[in-house]
# Entry
Amino acid sequence: MIKVMTIFGTRPEAIKMAPVVKELLKRPDIDTKVCLTAQHREMLDQVVDLFHLPVDYDLDIMKSGQSLYDITARVLRGLEDVLKKEKPDYVLVHGDTTTTFTAALAAFYQQIKIGHVEAGLRTGNLLSPFPEEANRQLTGVLSNVNFAPTETARENLLRESKDDKNIYVVGNTVIDALLATVKKDYHFEDAEIEAIEEHKRVILVTTHRRENLGAPMHHVYRALRRLVEAVPDTEVVFPVHRNPLVREAVSEELEGVPGIHLVEPMEYEPFTNLMARSAIVLTDSGGIQEEAPSLGKPVLVLRDTTERPEAVEAGTVKLVGTDEEKIFHAAYELLTDEKAYKAMAEAVNPYGDGHSAERIADALLYIEGLSDKKPTKFIAK
Ligand code: UD1
Ligand code: UDP
# Structure
């Protein structure tokens, strides 16, 4: 029997760890514990409730307008006692948030083995995305087992001299979560979204990156305003992140603009189903860059770099940055030139096949000698 504690704190970590926790709970040889840092509160709870995740510990650290120092200090302090009490064999962390790195550090201080889920994503630029690129590299240094979503991620880790035998290419667990939630003929409970007429094309938008706060976000929002005016059969749906700085810029630029629906962060199930009903997606999110290609939705990424090159190579994702003109023209072309649209709207699945969580559980049992079943490798088709 091994004890595995999964630690996460933000919305995307919860979405991507939910399938892992569910899978670990099915394995009789794994004693599964869940610890929330609650770096996010409401946006995290939405996911924990949706997937009915059993929570053993909740550090409840979120403060409005928190700094990186606040998050780091509060998570580190909070985890000391939890880890001392539970003494897990493994701590599993996900991705690249400040919770991820700090939880890995807290585990390392007690010499607890660390499994990094979604390991090996890299832009190579510590300032983009900030601070995520540093978080994921630092977590990589501390990790004992690396669950790389793709072959590219594995190669990134090998380049950093990680031992190949500690790398498992498992696919991205976000596809496990996505496949469990997108449904045919989905009806939206939100009356505003359900009321969008069928012939309207939906432009789905999200923004939250720290390096885009301030002027870049204003540029993005001005491009959106021009877009709904220039292409009259479109409507923007924009679930606005709870970061007060994002909200301030959104309300200055987009409040009351016809054709733009500003809504609260959506629950995962209606959100993914809205993505499936959208024409295009404009986002600076990481997870959405992985989900939308699987649904055949063109994505314009509001960033200058991406650690997810696979869908760019497949042609469904384009980096457009945060320049107003560039965003407007790229989106305008997609919405008015059928050929350009078709060239991007190809469904591709470079990130997963829905079996990533199984591979992670298999790998942990295999490494610990509790099973002879070697995890299969995820191969993108
Ligand atoms: C964090 C992660 C980022 C990830 C993003 C996902 C870091 C440094 N950043 O960024 O990698 O992509 O989450 O969304 O780890 N807030 C609420 N309620 C919530 C969530 C946030 O009120 O449920 C507000 C709070 O005022 C909080 C602020 O948003 O202080 C910012 O949250 P924070 O976790 O610090 O940064 P994010 O930009 O969300
Ligand atoms: N998401 C959601 N509701 C929303 C917006 C996004 O459930 O209103 C989901 C989305 O499907 C993806 C994840 O949140 O799985 C991405 O989170 P976010 O963009 O906040 O973080 P990132 O992926 O950039 O770290």
The chain has two domains: 2-172+352-367, 191-345.
